[in-house]
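Example noted here:
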Amino acid sequence: MKPLAYGAVGLLAVLLALYGGSRWLTWRAERAFPPLGRFATVDGVRLHYVEAGSGPAVVLLHGANGALQDFTTTIMPALSRRYRVIALDRPGHGHSQRPPQAGTPAAQAELLRGLLRQLGVDRPVLVGFSWSGALVLSYALRHQAELDGIVLLAGTAYPWAAPVDLKWRLPAWPILGDLAVEILVQPLAVLVSAGAVAASFAPGPVPASFGGAPWPLALRPGSFRANAEDVRNLKPALAEQSPHYGRLALPIVLLTGDRDTVVGPDTHSRPLAKTLPHAELIVVPDAGHLLPYSHPEATIAAIDRARAGRSPRSQPQDR
């Protein structure tokens, strides 16, 4: 029995060490990326946002594994010279609370609408990066008369063929999922993060600005669960809303990298441009997924074009 007892004690020590390491990594992430802006309560949910500049409104929405620092460290300073710019931590991400049933683009769109009403924002351009492409499309389908336009930055628009990755399904498993999220996600992610980041920027290099990326916040247990729920719910949400895209008549700009392997242009941006002839499709050559970091000038230009508006008779441009 002694070897068994020693083994149990050893396993418990390892689990406690991993748990302590995860708590320390959470503390370090929140110390490195503290709240930058203000908080507003919408339908009982405390949302963290940053606002800068004046003029027509532009609202920036981050993707999975992100937070509002994806914009404050990249395009927001330049945009705020001529726009009123608002960047939001989506529910459960960054420093925003996560209420129940907030894991769909539609639910998050309604919370965003409540925040914009509270802030007195009139006819903004909504900019959705990656996962948030689905969010701005959902918002536009319900409330397009309230918007001046939308921009999808490597944005999701249609369900994809591959199954949802195991790491996003695992947190929904009882006991084992909780154990993995609480003690394994952060230590393992530290080991593999460099390769994952490089793949997101491929074929280009990782820019220096990515040093300010808030990805450590996304590895905290609560945020990882929120990401996992968001991703698990994304495919069915896109399957439900995508047949209705033809109703959209507002200015739309689609910016995508032709080498994006995370949100592929042939699955998302190009089919959406065919569905919406008045949309403008801009394909950045030799670009990967993380466009606000790798191509900030092209990102800002896409937002300018959406704000300027385009004729419904214009044809999509693939350039």
